[in-house]
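Table 4 source record.
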Amino acid sequence: RAPRRANKGEEGQEFTLWLRMKLIADAGLLGLPNAGKSTFLSRATAAKPKIADYPFTTLHPGLGIVDLGTSTRFVLADIPGLVEGAAEGIGLGHTFLGHVERCKVLLHLIDCTQDDPDEAYRTIRGELEAYGGELAEKPEIVALSKVDVLSPDMVDEQAKILKKACGQEPLRLSAVANIGVKQALGQMARALGQIVEDDDEFEEDEGWSPLG
């Protein structure tokens, strides 16, 4: 039926609205460019991120599903490499730091082949604190990556330096050689409150793959 009554129109409002998408992930990978984040994601999940030996290979966040069993499954996000000043818009970090806000635990990868692993750690921590959003308060697991490249003695020395900076014993892993990957995933699962049937199974990585 034709309407018999109508309200008079009112003056409208016009404004510009900026929207930013934030990925929904349980755990996130952090580190400087070429810290081994994409390689770790490809080893821990079925994701196929672009991997190369130059900085900023990862231009967009990547997601993968970590499947450790029927009761242990979570989403892992690979965040593009951060640099000093990322929180102020330098590099790619400012655009993607927001994705970390949804993560409940962070795996911070430090390349063991660099001269100052402690400085690399402080750089990323400084950006988390500068960005705000309680990123610096999130549970953090620290790991030395690419340990297959150095001798055990050199890795031990780098681990001592990093431990003084982060206050915890860093994990030692190599996604390429499949060293420490399962242990890191186990720690993330426990931090997320996932049920792990047997903690001992996460101490040995030899031959493990998310694809079986």
